[in-house]
């Protein structure tokens, strides 16, 4: 769902602490630009705000299952969706900015820029409490034609990065105009730097 939201311009940032399958379980910003690879490990309605839940069915369109059929329970049961045979890559992103935060108020104030529930976002902050949460602002581009990639066994599990054995070009159209992205970026920077408007 996150990849779909980024590719549609409904989400502008990602919040990371690191995947369970990463070497030291800590997030590192290893690349300045990368393709958005859809996975289905955490595809659960209760993690997404109600306003964006209708998009979850469309997010499943990024996978290609055997015989072209979705798993029977995919639209009715949360999580436990098996990986498809192939996935469609529709977009790539470049890092526009990157911060680390520990303030719950900042996580809440950033909620207009992600599709998860505030509770889920706060759980990301609380996980491994001694480590800060990475906030990565992304400029996303839709590629001219979706590219279908075979899913390998070693692509599964909770991780931040995959090395895809296929040459893909970094080309395409930004999902937001320059003006839209600049306005949103300024608001995000204000929130992260602590310049959030407050009533006293």
In whole angstroms, the N-to-C terminal distance is: 37 Å
Percent helix? 10-25%
Q: What is the number of helices?
A: 5
Rg estimate, integer Å: 17 Å
Structural class by SSE content: alpha+beta
Count of the domains:
1
Indicate the mean pLDDT: 81
DSSP strand content: 15-25%
Low-confidence stretches: 196-200
Main beta sheet strand tally, sense and closure? 6 strands, antiparallel
Identify the overall geometry. globular
Order of helices and strands: HEEHEEHHEEH
Question: How many β strands by DSSP?
Answer: 6
Map the helices and strands.
Layout: H1 2-7, E1 13-16, E2 33-35, H2 55-59, E3 63-64, E4 86-101, H3 104-109, H4 118-126, E5 133-150, E6 173-174, H5 178-192
Antiparallel strand pairs: 1-5, 2-4, 3-4, 4-5, 5-6
Descriptive report:
- It holds the Pfam family DUF1802.
- This is DUF1802 family protein.
- InterPro entries: DUF1802.
- The protein has 200 residues and is of the alpha+beta class.
- 20% of the residues lie in helices and 22% in strands.
- The protein has helices spanning 2-7, 55-59, 104-109, 118-126, 178-192; strands at 13-16, 33-35, 63-64, 86-101, 133-150, 173-174.
- It starts with a helix and ends in an 8-residue tail after the last helix.
């Amino acid at each position: 769902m996150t990849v779909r939201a980024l590719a549609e311009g409904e989400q502008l940032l990602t919040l990371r602490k690191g995947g369970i399958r990463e070497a030291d379980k800590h997030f590192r910003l290893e690349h300045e630009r990368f393709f958005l690879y859809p996975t289905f490990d955490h595809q659960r309605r209760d993690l997404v705000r109600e306003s964006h839940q209708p998009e979850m069915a469309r997010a499943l369109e990024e996978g290609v299952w055997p015989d072209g059929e979705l798993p029977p329970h995919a639209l009715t049961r949360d999580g436990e969706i098996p990986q498809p045979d192939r996935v469609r890559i529709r977009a790539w992103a470049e890092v526009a900015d990157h911060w680390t935060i520990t303030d719950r108020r900042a996580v809440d104030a950033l909620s207009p820029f992600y599709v998860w529930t505030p509770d889920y976002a706060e759980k990301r902050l609380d996980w491994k409490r001694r480590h800060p949460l990475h906030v990565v602002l992304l400029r996303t581009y839709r590629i001219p034609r979706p590219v279908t990639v075979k899913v390998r066994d070693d692509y599964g599990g909770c991780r931040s990065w995959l090395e895809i054995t296929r040459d893909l070009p970094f080309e395409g159209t930004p999902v937001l105009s320059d003006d839209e992205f600049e306005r949103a970026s300024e608001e995000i920077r204000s929130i992260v730097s602590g310049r959030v408007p407050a009533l006293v």
